[in-house]
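Comment thread on ticket #2218

A.B. wrote:
> Attaching the input chain for the structure job we discussed in standup.
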Amino acid sequence: MAKNLVVFYTDQQRKDSLGCYGNPVARTPTLDALAARGTLFHNHYAANPVCSPSRACFLTGRYPQAHRLIDNGMALPETEVTLPMVLSEHGYHTCSVGKIHLTPKRAPLEYGYVESAACWESGMMAGWTGGYYGFREVKLTLGHGDTAFLGGGHYGQWVQEQFGDLQALATQARSRREENPFRSELPLAAYSSTWVAQEAIASIRHRPADQPLFIFVSFPDPHSPFTPPEPYASLFADTAFPTPHRAEGENARKPRHYQRAMSEHLFPDDGEAHHPDYFSATDWQRVFAATYGMVSLIDDCVGRVMDCLREEGMLEDTVIAFTADHGELLGDHHFLYKGPLPCRSLLNIPLIVAAPGTQPGVCDVVMSNTDMMPTLLDLLDVPIPAPVQGRSFKASITGGEAITGTSALCSGWSKESPLYYHHSLYEDRYRISYFPNQDDGELYDLQDDPHELHNLYHEPVFRDLRDALLLRLFRKVGAAEPFPPPVVCPW
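C.D. wrote:
> Ran it. Output below, let me know if you need it in another format.
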């Protein structure tokens, strides 16, 4: 019997939010235990710093340039070959519970996108349960926070059935949020993370008996607006949190939009990264407490699904992965949220993989989330499709021949301005970034400056190193370009 695959996926979660990555405050016993029996990756990078492009990279094994979903507000072309498509063709029952985000939530009704709130509000999605980009069974959440149910989806329908009028619930939540903006007044039973866990458990228990299972368990948290329900909202109320990684004046030594973003709202439609100079120390404390609370709730929900796998006798023949689409600045570099800034806080994301018959370990090899599709297929002994641009890191999990000399390409676009378009290359020791429309960049020695506070790009002593790294970056960008479109005749 083929191995099963369970992927736990989160939205906007920092790598350092977990105890297994050395966070002394986090309460993540389930994920820490998964890391202790699996492989913990320290240098896993998203290929894009915002949701949809990064998710598409994970599910296609291709860079944004190739799969063409380069920014939020766009749709993944249906011609792309996805992980669930491949597994479905190889006899798997493919299921997604929670957020997918391969088409835009705010798209007008006439586009007919499955993840459009307008389509759900119109009633045209009534009774729909898939398929979708290779997922045969789909249970959707749309949106974030304590009013995510307003987006529709199966979660919105369920909240309305179980807890009453959606508008009344939203009005209540917003009213009480004025008193405490970083806490939900929803009961824990109605919160999206709880729903994702319970629906994942239902799908596992009612899976087809004659097929292996791939289930994508995707939580909308710990994304803003930072509104966990009780008891998680109060769990870290009196905690002293690690200090954000930032230095006075650091953004003055970077491409000019970093400095402008300290006083201007440059990215309202590109993740909203900004300098919240209106925040008090109390506001920061509440944001941290809410974020850690959401992560703890996710950990408990993952624990419930893991218990189900154990009860179903599936743990011994199931590959389990935990990761995120991108991170959150959370005060690093003086910013909050995300945006077209190629920072490690946004791009260096958590990755844990536990596979049957492998020994626990830690992997420091640099890899990209474009490498996840081929790695997971390889672990399942399923052939990797030719269009995939990533490579398999199975050997890093199974104890095979050491992988060396790798790097991760991260590219970002913007609806706001071409000035923010960038490419970055992460290697073992260095990060190089280039903004073509500014002819400017960033260079960091990650050994001496792991939090990227001192830009060396214009330092004369590093000029030769910078130019060598730029050459390697441009070669990587060239290799990431899309394959030629199909030709219909010789000319």
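A.B. wrote:
> Thanks. Noting for the ticket: Residues 4-407 form a domain with the Alkaline Phosphatase, subunit A fold (CATH 3.40.720.10).
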